[in-house]
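Good morning C.,

I know you're traveling, so I'll keep this short. The sequence:
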Amino acid sequence: MSPVIFRESQLSEREFFEEYNKHSTGNCWFLLIYILRSFAPLCLAVQVEVFEYPGSVDIYIDEFSINLNSSHRFANNNSTEQGYTRLQSFKREASQKNLVLRMSVFKSIGLCLGALIGGLFADLYGRRMVSFYSCIVWNILGWIWIIIHNKHVLELAFVVAVAFCNIVNVVTFVTFGEITTKMSRLLVIYTIPYYLLGVLVLDYTSKAIHVWQYLIGFIASTNCIMIFACWYTPESARWLINKNKIKEAFQVLNEISGKLYTLPEQQEENVKLKKTTITYQMMLFLFTNKLKHFLIICLSMVIASLNYNFAKLRAVIHYVDTDEFGLLSIGAEAIGYLFIIPVYIFLGKTHGLFFIYILLSLAAVVALITHEFGREIYYNTFCILFGTTAVCLNWLIFLDLFPTFLRATTMGCSFFIFGLAIALSSLLVHKVEEYRECYFYVTFFLTALFGVTVLALPRSHSQNLPNYKLN
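The C-alpha cells, ready to paste straight into the viewer:
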C-alpha cells in the first residue's frame, strides 16, 4: 500500500467521500459487488416464487396431497372419459390458482416483516452484520424445509424464510446504493431484474426435478451464494462515518483503494447511546423534518405497488395454466426495466414518475372504452410494464430523500408497502373480477389525481446522497 495523508487534522466527510468515490466505482471490485448484490433478488425469487408457477406448484400439491377446490358441480359430468378429463383439468387449475392466492398472502406477511425489521436493524447495528446473520438464518431455514412433512408447519417456515431473505434483499440494496456515486446509482435498480432470472431458473428447475425434497435442496443451495456475498461486501462507509466509526471507515477505504489513508492525531468520538434513544431520535427527525416528503413518497409507492401487483395477480388468475402469462409477464417486466433508462435520462426521477402515472391512467381509460375482456391481457401487460418502472423510480427516490441514519428504515417502509400491496391484491383480486369497471375507475383516479403529488418532492437527479449526522 502507498501511504496517503489527508491535509486536515479533523475528518472532512467531503474529502473522504471524494477519495472513496474514486475507488468504489468503475473497477473490478465494484463489478464484483454488483454481481454479488444481484444474487440477492435472484435467490429471493427462487425462494418466494416456489408457490406461484405451475411446475413447482404441482410438485408441492403432489407431495402434500393438497386439494384446495370444491369440484362437486362437475360430479355429474365425470361419467364419460371426456367428462372425467374435464374434471381432472378443473381440479388441477383450481388448486393452482387457490394455492397461488393463499401463498401470496403468506409471502406478503414475510416480506412486510422482513422489510420493517431489517431496515430498522440495519440503521441501528450496521448493514453488513444484519445482512450476514440474516443470510445464515435464511440458509438454515431453507435446509429445514426438506424435513418438514406438515403443510401448516411448512407455511409458517415459509413466512419466516421469506422475512429473512427480504431482510438480506433490502439491506444489500441500501448498501450497494451507498457504495455507488451519483453517476452510477441507477445501477442499483439493475440488480433487481435478476429476480426475473431467478423465476426462470425456478421454472426450468421445477420441470427437471419432480421430487419436492430435491427441489427444496436446490433452493437452499442457491442461498449459500448469498452468505459469501454478505461476508465479502464491506460495511457501508456512509454508515460508519455517520456513527463516528472513523477507523473502520478508513479501513474500508484502504481495502478498496489499495492505499494507506491516515489522519494525523484524529480524535474519534465514543458517544454510546441506547438503541431505544437512537430510535427515538431517528423517528423524531423523520416526523419533524421529513414527514411531508415521507408521506408523499409512501402514497406514490402505494399507487405503483397496487397497479403492479393487481396486474400480475389478475394475469395469474386467467393464465396460470398456460405459458402465455409467463412470457407476457416476464417480457413486460424486462421492458419496464429498460424503459427506466430514457425516463431517467430525459425526465429525471420525479417528473419521470409523474409521466409514468399519466401513462397508467391513460391505460385505464383505454380499458374502460374498449370493454373487451379478451383484450385485458394487454392492459395487464402495460400495467406490469409501467408498474415496474414506477416501483423502481420510487425506490431510487427513497434512496435519495433520506439521510444515512434513516435510509434503511425508510427503504424498509417502501418494501413493506410493496408487501402489503401483494396481500391486498391476493385478497381482493376475485372482487376485482366481479367489478372490473370499478377497478378501472379506481386505477384512473389513483394515478391521475394522487399521482400528481409526486411533483411536490424535491429534485434529486444527479445529486449526492445526504449524509448529515443525527445529533
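Safe travels,
E.
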